[in-house]
C-alpha cells in the first residue's frame, strides 16, 4: 500500500511540474540536484527526451537499487537501463533477458556480455563485432581473440591494430602476425612494446631473438658441431621450424639443463637450431598417420656434417611422437612431454591404454623395458624381471594399463603413476633411471636417426644413400664411433 502511495505521489508530482511551462529540462535538472527526492523531477525531464536526465535517473536508481525507475526508463526506450537492472536482478533467466534487451538496443557493454552467452561462432562474432564497432575496447580485444582461436588471422589483424597500443597481449599477437608475414622489423618493435609493458611471453621472445637467428640447411651443412663429451650415448639435436617453435625449443633446452633427475643419464642435448623458413615440410597428419611428421630427408646433410644420433623437431601443431631417432613436438608440448618422448628413444612404452592397433603391436612384441606381460605360465620376458631384481630386490609388480584395450595383462615395477603413464606426474622411479642408463650404454638398444634416413632412401629407391646410412647405423649399433662428415662417400653421393 505504501509503495502504491509513493508511486501515485511521484506521478502526481510529475504531472504538476509538467503543467508548469517554465520548467524546462535544464531547470528540472537543476532542481533535481537540490531536491531530497530527485527522481520525479528527473522523470519529467526524461519524458521531454533529455539524455542527461535519463543518465542521472539511471544512476540514482542504481545507487538506491530502485528497480521501479529502471523499469520506467526501459519502458521509455532507454536501453542502458535494462543492463543496469540486470545487475540488480537475482533471477538468471530474467537477467539474460534484460541483457539481450539492452544488446538489441545498441548498448555496447550488453552486446559484449550477450556475445559471451553462447559458443557458436556466428552468434559471438555478430555481437562482439557490434560492440567493437562502437569502440568498446574489451569487445575489440575479445573479437580479435575469437578470430585467432578459429584461425582467421586476416579478420583478427585489423582489430589487433586498433588495440595494440593499449593492450600488451594485442601487441604480442600482432607481432607474431607481422613476423609470419616477413615483416620482422615491425614484429620486433611490437614484441619490444609488449615486453616494455611486462608481457612475459614477449620478454621470452625478445630473449630468443637476441640469442638465435634462423639458419639455412646449406649453411648448417658447412658448420661443424661443437664436440660432445665421450659419455654421450645419445647426441640429441633440437630443431625449430619457426619463431614460436624456437621459443619453446629454447625453453625445453633450458629446462633440460636444470633437470637434476636426468643428470646421471649418458645423453646430451645440444643447443637448439632455428631453421630458416620452408626448410622442413611438416604436417600434423603426416602421410595420413594421424600424427606430426616432417620430410626428414631435408636434414640429411646436417646430420652428415654434425654427426648427431637423434633429432627433435618442433613444428606448429600435431601429436607428439618418436619415429626411429626423430622426436616430433608441437608448440604446445611442454618439457614434461619432451622427457616422456625422450624415454621412447630407448624403447620405453606408454603405461596408459594404447589404442588397439598400437597395443597389438607392442603387447605382442613383449619387449618393453619398463613392462612385463602375463603369459600362459609366467611373466614375459623373464629377463626383464631378472634385470630389475639386480637393481632393486625384491621387485614388486603392479598393473599397467598399457594393453587394456586388447585384454592383455601387463605389469610395471612401480606402485606410483610414472612419467610414462602421465607426463604431468613427472615421477621417474629410480629403477627406471637405472634401466634407461643401461639401455643408453647398450648400442644394440639404439634406433638412431641413421635408421630413419636409411629407411627413407631405401623406399625412395636411392640405393647409394640408403647404403651409406645403413653403414652408419651398423657402426653405431656395434658401438664403433663414426664421423659421417669424414667418410669418403660423402663427396660421392649426389644431393638428389
Provide a descriptive summary of the structure in words.
- The protein is an alpha/beta fold and 496 residues long.
- The chain has four domains: 2-105, no CATH class; 139-210, Serine Threonine Protein Phosphatase 5, Tetratricopeptide repeat; 218-344, Collagenase (Catalytic Domain), CATH 3.40.390; 356-445, no CATH class.
- Helix content is 53%, strand content 8%.
- The chain has 24 helices and twelve strands.
- The protein has helices spanning 2-18, 25-34, 38-47, 51-63, 67-75, 80-88, 92-104, 108-115, 121-132, 137-149, 153-163, 168-180, 184-196, 200-211, 217-220, 243-258, 300-306, 335-344, 356-365, 382-391, 430-440, 449-459, 463-477, 489-492; strands spanning 234-240, 267-269, 273-274, 282-283, 293-294, 310-315, 321-323, 326-330, 372-374, 379-380, 398-400, 410-412.
- The strands form three sheets. Strands 1, 2, 3, 6, 7 and 8 form a six-stranded mixed beta sheet that branches. Strands 10-9-12-11 form a four-stranded antiparallel beta sheet, covered by helices on one side.
- A hairpin with a 2-residue loop joins strand 7 (321-323) and strand 8 (326-330).
- Helix 10 (137-149) runs antiparallel to helix 11.
- The longest helix is centred in the first third of the chain and has 17 residues, at 2-18.
- The N and C termini lie far apart (95 Å).
- The relative contact order is 0.05.
- The model is unreliable at 1-9, 15-22 and 480-496 (pLDDT under 50).
Amino acid at each position: 500500500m505504501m509503495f502504491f502511495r509513493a508511486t501515485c505521489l511521484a506521478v502526481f508530482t510529475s504531472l504538476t511540474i509538467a503543467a508548469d511551462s517554465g520548467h524546462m529540462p535544464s531547470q528540472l535538472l537543476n532542481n533535481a540536484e537540490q531536491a531530497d527526492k530527485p527522481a520525479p523531477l528527473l522523470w519529467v525531464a526524461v519524458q521531454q527526451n533529455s539524455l542527461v536526465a535519463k543518465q542521472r535517473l539511471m544512476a540514482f536508481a542504481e545507487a538506491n537499487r530502485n528497480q521501479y525507475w529502471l523499469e520506467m526508463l526501459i519502458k521509455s526506450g532507454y536501453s542502458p537501463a535494462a543492463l543496469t537492472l540486470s545487475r540488480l536482478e537475482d533471477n538468471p533467466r530474467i537477467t539474460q533477458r534484460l541483457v539481450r534487451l539492452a544488446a538489441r538496443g545498441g548498448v555496447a557493454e550488453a552486446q559484449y556480455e550477450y556475445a559471451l552467452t553462447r559458443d557458436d561462432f556466428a552468434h559471438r562474432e555478430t555481437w562482439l563485432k557490434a560492440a567493437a564497432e562502437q569502440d568498446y575496447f574489451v569487445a575489440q580485444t575479445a573479437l580479435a581473440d575469437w578470430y585467432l582461436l578459429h584461425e582467421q588471422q586476416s579478420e583478427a589483424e585489423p582489430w589487433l591494430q586498433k588495440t595494440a597500443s593499449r593492450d600488451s597481449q594485442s601487441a604480442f599477437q600482432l607481432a607474431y602476425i607481422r613476423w609470419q608475414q616477413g615483416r620482422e622489423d615491425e614484429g620486433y618493435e611490437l614484441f619490444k612494446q609488449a615486453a616494455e609493458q611486462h608481457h612475459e611471453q614477449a620478454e621470452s621472445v625478445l630473449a630468443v631473438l637476441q640469442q638465435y637467428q634462423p639458419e639455412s640447411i646449406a649453411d648448417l651443412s658447412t658448420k661443424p658441431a661443437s664436440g660432445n663429451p665421450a659419455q654421450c650415448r645419445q647426441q640429441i639435436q633440437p630443431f625449430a621450424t619457426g619463431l614460436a617453435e624456437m621459443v619453446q625449443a629454447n625453453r625445453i633446452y633450458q629446462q633440460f639443463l636444470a633437470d637434476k633427475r636426468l643428470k646421471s643419464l649418458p645423453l646430451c642435448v645440444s643447443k637448439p637450431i632455428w631453421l630458416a623458413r620452408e626448410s622442413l615440410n611438416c604436417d600434423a597428419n603426416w602421410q595420413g598417420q594421424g600424427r606430426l611428421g616432417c620430410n626428414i630427408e631435408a636434414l640429411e646433410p646436417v646430420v652428415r656434417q654434425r654427426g648427431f644420433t637423434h633429432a627433435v623437431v618442433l613444428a606448429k601443431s600435431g601429436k607428439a611422437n618418436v619415429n626411429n631417432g626423430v622426436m616430433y613436438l608441437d608448440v604446445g608440448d611442454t618439457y614434461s612431454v619432451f622427457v616422456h618422448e625422450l624415454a621412447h628413444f630407448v624403447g620405453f612404452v606408454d603405461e596408459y591404454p594404447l589404442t588397439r592397433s598400437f597395443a597389438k603391436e607392442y603387447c605382442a612384441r613383449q619387449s618393453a623395458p619398463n613392462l612385463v606381460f602375463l603369459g600362459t605360465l609366467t611373466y614375459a620376458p623373464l629377463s626383464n624381471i631378472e634385470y630389475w631384481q639386480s637393481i632393486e630386490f625384491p621387485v614388486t609388480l603392479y598393473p599397467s594399463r598399457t594393453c587394456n584395450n586388447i585384454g592383455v595383462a601387463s605389469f610395471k615395477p612401480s606402485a606410483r603413476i610414472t612419467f610414462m603413464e602421465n607426463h604431468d606426474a613427472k615421477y621417474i622411479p629410480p629403477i627406471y633411471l637405472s634401466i634407461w642408463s643401461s639401455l643408453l650404454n647398450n648400442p644394440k638398444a639404439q634406433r638412431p636417426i641413421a635408421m630413419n634416413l636409411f629407411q627413407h632412401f631405401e623406399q625412395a629407391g636411392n640405393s647409394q644413400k640408403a647404403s651409406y646410412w645403413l653403414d652408419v647405423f651398423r657402426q653405431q649399433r656395434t658401438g664403433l664411433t663414426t664421423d659421417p662428415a669424414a667418410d669418403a662417400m660423402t663427396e660421392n653421393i649426389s644431393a638428389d
